[in-house]
Amino acid sequence: MRLPLRPLALAAVLAALPGLACATGLLQAWQAAWQHDRELAVARADHARAQPLRDQAAALWRPGVALTAAAGVATGETDMRGAQFSAPGFGRSTGVDFGTSVTGGTATRWALQASQPLYNPQRRAQQRQLGLQAEMAELQWQAQRQQAMLRTAQRYLALAVAQEALRVQDQQLAAVRQAFGEAQERFDIGDAPVTDVHEARARLAALQAQRLAAQTERDLQRQALADTTGLPSSSLAARLPRPGMDTPPQALAQPLEAWQREADGANPAIRLQALAVQAARAEAERHGRAASPSIDLVAQAGQDRLRGSGDYGSARSGGTQALVGVQLTVPLYTGGWRSAKEEESLRLQDKAQAQEDSLREQVAAQVHAAWLGLSLGAERVQALQQALQASEARLDATHTGREAGDRTLLDWLNAQSDTAAARLALAQARSALLLDGLRLALLAGQQGEDALRQADQMLALP
């Protein structure tokens, strides 16, 4: 008489319950990552430069005031010949020679200058560049934030799949360990061949090795999520997408072309590169011939003094200058630097444009892949659900056939292994489907928090 295979050990089922009881939600993981993620901290610090860039752009057309002052030891010599001299009571004299001499005297000098740009194409291009750089900093922050969301979701779901793999291994290990004990018991009473014992022992050893690998993978994925969120790794437990939520709502409501148009206009990376093209164009304008002249409203005042003694005894001299007017500056010759710089800037503009075109193609391909992942992934999940049901039915039939003597222990072990593989494949497909939905929303430039909140609602209840 063959002994029936008993149900799985209760401990193997209960082992998964503590993780579910204190499972961390995806939204909760993101809220922790928002405060702790190191790459996001770098992006946040970079984003802080946006306002200073705007302030620099605004300051370019404001007046500038500069004060210079100097004091020191100086020597001054003047020699004038053939001058004309006149003074009250002395009449007028021509052919007069005179000179001044101060050696090692005390010199002081100060100058105050204020200027207001009136016409300066180079400064206007620089102002445009600074404004574009501020916008690029904002878009870079948006792109990095979305990448952090996707990275957190990927690590979260990777942990959920790793947990499921370990749970499936534990269930399978418990069932095979029980089957090994029963095979040994049957062999001892002469009701089963020794091959059943060897087959069960070999499968048990293989599962024990697989279980160690699954535990290692779970621990690694848990630590990766802990590094992102800053939460204690020992308390982290993730949830898989729950059955019945295999297609993100409204994800496939619009065709692929609509998603690609939306991504082409709203994707942060594309918008960032488009701004880079405009910044390169502004750099080329800065060095163009038309940008070289400038007109400024200037006001200047200054004074120079020198006091000491020299060849003619004690002497002192001084002068005061003041000016209010308009100043024209036209660079006449720069040794070819300006034209070379303009040529370099034009080539960099071509490079930025080519990068934008390439990026648009890449994003379109990524949108296509994510959309296909959703449309075909949902069908794949349904197929895997049917495969799991068929595997479970096969396992039950093999169990019954073994009790009746129509199936061997090896048949049952193979059916058990196939069922476990189907269960794990279904979990992986559901996680991939959820990630594709989130990835598609982020590629299209949609609000990341809304997409993440929607994904969190699709997870299994704690």
Short description:
The chain has 462 residues and is α+β, with helices and mostly antiparallel strands.
Overall radius of gyration = 41 Å
* Poorly predicted segments: 1-21
* Protein structure class: alpha+beta
* Largest pleated sheet: 4 strands, antiparallel
Shape: elongated
Treating each run of at least 4 consecutive H or I residues as one helix, how many helices?
12
CATH architecture identity: Up-down Bundle
CATH homology superfamily: Outer membrane efflux proteins (OEP)
- The residue-averaged pLDDT reads 86
Structure report:
The chain is of the alpha+beta class and 462 residues long. It has one domain: Outer membrane efflux proteins (OEP) (Up-down Bundle). The protein is 62% helix and 19% strand. It is built from 12 helices and 4 strands; from the N terminus they run αααααββααααββααα. Helix 3 crosses helix 7. The chain starts with 9 loop residues before the first helix and ends in a 5-residue tail after the last helix. The N terminus is likely disordered.
Task: Indicate the topology.
Blueprint: H1 10-14, H2 17-21, H3 26-36, H4 38-47, H5 50-59, E1 64-87, E2 91-119, H6 121-188, H7 194-229, H8 256-266, H9 268-286, E3 294-310, E4 313-329, H10 337-404, H11 409-443, H12 448-457
Antiparallel strand pairs: 1-2, 2-3, 3-4
Helix pairs in contact: 3-6, 3-7, 4-6, 5-6, 6-7, 6-9, 6-11, 8-10, 9-10, 10-11, 11-12
